Each structure stands twice: as C-alpha cells, then as structure tokens.
Amino acid sequence: MSATAAPSCPSCGFPRQTGDRFCEQCGARLEEQPTATRVELDLTIAAAVSDQGRVHHRNEDAFHLEVFDQRRVAAVVCDGISSASAGNVAARDAARAAGAVLAQAAADPGSDPAQATLDAIEAAQFAVAQVPWTTRSKRVDPSCTIVSALCRGAHIVIGWVGDSRAYWFDALGAHQLTVDDSFAEEGVAKGLLTPEQAAKSPFLHSITHWVGPDAPERPPRLVALDPDRPGRLLLCTDGLWNYAPGADELARLLAALPADATPVAVARALADMANDRGGRDNITAAVVDVVVDNAPSTAAP
Hints:
Phosphatase 2c, domain 1, 6-stranded antiparallel beta sheet, single chain, about 300 residues, alpha+beta
C-alpha cells in the first residue's frame, strides 16, 4: 500500500497547493480540503507512519509497504523535494511505482533482488517524469528522494537516491546502511570535511542526486545485508533523522521502548519524537522486523 497526503483538483486531478483558490491547470474554483496529519499502516511484522509535522501545510512524504509472509517484505519511503513543483505527487507516484516492482520481486523467489531494486528505482524515475506540472508556480521539475528495502528471508537489499536513509538494529549494535547523496557527504568522502563538520554543514541537506526528470545521470546506490541474527530495519526521511541523526541515538530511543514494542509502535514513537523535538519537516518511518532461521525471534533493541 502507498500512502501520502496529496490534495488535487476535483475537476482535472492536477496537484493543488495549500491555499490555492483556483486550479493552475484548468482554472476550476477550489474549496478548502482538510489534510490528514498522519497516515499509518500496520502489517504486524512491518509498519509505516507518515506525519505532516508541526510546520508544513501538507505532507510531501509517501510510502509503500507490502508483506507476503513472515519473511518477504517490500518497503519504499519517498520524500518530495520542497523546492520542486508537485513534490507530494512525485513522492506518491514514485513510491507506488517502485513498490509495485519490489512487491513482484518479493513474491518471486527466482528474481534477482539487486536487479529488482534497480528496476524499481527506474520505475520511480519514469513515474515522476510523467507527473503534470506548471511553471506558473516558479518551481523546478517534480522530484523526490527514495529509499527502498526488499527483504526475502534474511537477505535484504537496500536501494536509495538522495538523503532518505536506512538503518539496521540488532542485539549487537546499530548501523546506518545508506550514505546520503549530499554535498556534505561528498565532502567527507573526499577528505574535505570530517563527519562532525558535515553534520553541521549548511550543505547537509543539499542533495546531489534525486528522482525526477532533471536528475543527474548516475545509478542509484545499493547495499546488501545478510544478518545472522534477528533485527529491525528502519527506512526514514530526513524529517525523522534530523532529530536523531546517528544510529546510536536512534538505538537508544528504540531501547527505551518496551521490549515487546511492535513495528507500528516503534514507528509511532519515532514520529512522536521528531514532532516533540520540533517537527519542522514531514516525518516518515517504515519499520520491519526481520526474522532469521534458527535464531531467537525477538528483534533488538
């Protein structure tokens, strides 16, 4: 299931901005429509929460989450770029397109998960390129970030473009699986910045790769994980990790929850934390419990 808050014109379906009185596409008069502040999906071993936050007038995040059994999960989290036109629609359509490809791969044990992840992000790219928009808003082409996970048993493939992140937590520690496509992280890779300097850099959120028709021609990045113990996977947008940027800090937040906290309880708690600490952006968290054969079934922390 994909989820996002994306109001549109009731006459032609064109994305509308909060406060618009007339549609920029067809000119129809618009009535004010309430926007849900939080969307949740609980699939027991996996769950997602997307929250509007305390500042933005609409939610430009989106997610897609499907569970086929206790071992196969397809998850996507997207974040519409705030300076782009129709960022909410870009995120929604990207999540739907990528999620459909990953869901098919999750259900097909003969498919190659790495190739499926590349195909999913390519499908997202194509979907965003089809999003209708107008230059009247003086914004750039529709675009978004994406992070995805394809879990088949204890084999997990993560793919991403932009600065939405994936983290892994188990009984022995916590790890950030992704590296942001940003000027700050590229500065670290080139030895121009320390990680501490990058965290304080004004370019922390200046991304160098995104999903959209004007995106640079470079492949998405992938990482594979084959855990030998049960754990918990988190996909999230920067509206969450802004307030807990380190894997260790996130692990402490998770460890403070009850030992039997479900994925949906974890996702809610993380969204609440981001709101409590300011909520200056949209917040989305997708949480997956990963079970490993011949190992205890309790995820940690």
